[in-house]
From TrEMBL:
Organism: Clostridium magnum DSM 2767
InterPro entries given in the database record: DUF2922 (IPR021321)
Protein name as catalogued: DUF2922 domain-containing protein
Amino acid sequence: MGHKLVMRFTTEEDGKYFSMSIDNIKIDEITGQPSVTEAEVNTLMDLIVQKKIFATSYGAIVGKKDAKVVSTTSQEFTIA
């Protein structure tokens, strides 16, 4: 199972958002579930907004919109 953090930010252009995802986020070694905390995500997003390190086609990132952890599973098939 794969896990990624998806964050959305508001931009200078009204109604436009910038999305960023981070693959292979940290997981709890015992449960195998994501162990990223809400506080860690908020701190990361605040830093991204504050440092203005990303430029978007909709202007600068000016705020946080939302964030979520997305988990995916896959199943392989034998093809004969």
